[in-house]
Amino acid sequence: MPEPRMVYIVCVVQRRRICSTARIARANGGRSAAFMSDMKLSLACSPCPNDTFMFHGLASGKMPVEGCELEVHLHDIETLNRLALRGTYAVTKLSFGAWMLARRHYRLLNAGAAMGFGCGPLIVSGGGRELSRDDLRNCRIAVPGELTTAHLLLRLWAPHAGNKVFLRYDKIIPAVLAGEADCGVIIHESRFTYERDGLRKIVDLGEWWEQTTRLPVPLAAIGVRQDVPAQVASSLEDALRRSIADARANPAAPMEFARRHAREMDDDVLREHIRTFVNDYSLAPGPDAQAATETLIRMATQTEADK
Fold first, then answer.
1. Model's pTM, two decimal places?
2. Of 73, 105, 188, 273, catalytic
3. Where are the domains of the chain?
4. Whole-angstrom Cα distance, residue 237 to residue 109?
5. pLDDT digits (tens, 9 = 90+) for 232-272
6. Is the pLDDT of residue 228 over 90?
7. Do the Cβ atoms of 176 and 143 come closer than 8 Å?
8. Alpha-carbon distance 129 to 246, whole Å?
9. 10 Å Cβ neighbour count for 247?
10. Which of 101, 110, 127, 261 lies 20 to 30 Å from 301 when distance is taken between CA atoms?
């Protein structure tokens, strides 16, 4: 029998006041009754600085979702992806790579996306080792989750790369440094810290995507479950957009919230992370974001067909 999943509940926001719970809670093994009425919503995002920065207004109660009680959960992105396949949370961050498989459960909000230029995953190697795209055929590659967009971009760039080990994103660099992998696909704050660890960039997959498509790289989005009423989803989207705008205008409290949950504590890295991933696409994706999403789906479908 599998070990019960542990869920970190950050807080419960009740209409216009916040009731801190800061506790570890056990969730059931199947789909949770996360959305039990139009007054209660479970919302899940990652502890990465861009997410906690954007969601601070909702988690703190500063930007309430009218008539709703929010229960906010934090998980790493691959855990969020896996839970999204089961429709666990009413509202969740998920990779575009995972959303392709979870569309029966979720529609996307037009706010909160991780998308843009100069923000894609990198492939890095250790020991100053130079590797070509063809070399990946014989390399052991550490990847931050099977359902991540990073993995999907790797498959598009090097479909012949087959020897993969899937690790949590913050375990990739240690695995490469320890020689447990020849190279690794890094995301989140790792793209700002890999050089200080002595790693060498093989390719910037986001840059490759941009040169190939002339579109922003679509990494992740916010999905709302199909059983959430449209009016509630609209109110949530509006509150999230206000939360993002307020965080950018008044960053002190959101930065502290982000720092509290971040794995990388260096302030310069936190600021660069937020500046890179929280952008105008987070507020309003626009037509090129839609084109980027459709292009990613089309290229992924073609790659599967070519197998």
1. 0.85
2. 188
3. 6-116+216-305, 122-213
4. 6
5. 999 999 999 999 999 999 999 999 999 999 877 788 999 99
6. yes
7. no
8. 44
9. 26
10. 110
Q: Which residue type is seen at 31?
A: R
> CB within 8 A of 69, min separation 6: which ones?
12, 13, 14, 15, 39, 40, 41
Looking at domain 6-116+216-305, its CATH superfamily turns out to be Periplasmic binding protein-like II (3.40.190.10)
Domain 122-213 maps to which CATH number in 1.20.120.520, 3.40.50.300, 1.20.1290.10, 3.40.190.10?
Answer: 3.40.190.10
> Cα–Cα distance between 295 and 307 in angstroms, integer?
19
Catalytic-residue membership of 56 = no
Distance of CA 12 to the CA centre of its chain: 22
* Structural contact between residues 282 and 111, judged by C-beta atoms closer than 8 angstroms: yes
Q: Report d(CA 111, CA 115) in Å as an integer.
A: 11
User: b/e string for 40-62 if b means 16 or more Cβ within 10 A?
Assistant: bbbbbbbbbbbbbbbbbbbbbbb
Residue given tokens 């009731």 in the structure block: 19
| CB proximity list for 26: less than 8 A, separation 6 or greater | 4, 5, 6, 7
pLDDT digits (tens, 9 = 90+) for 15-27: 333 333 322 223 3
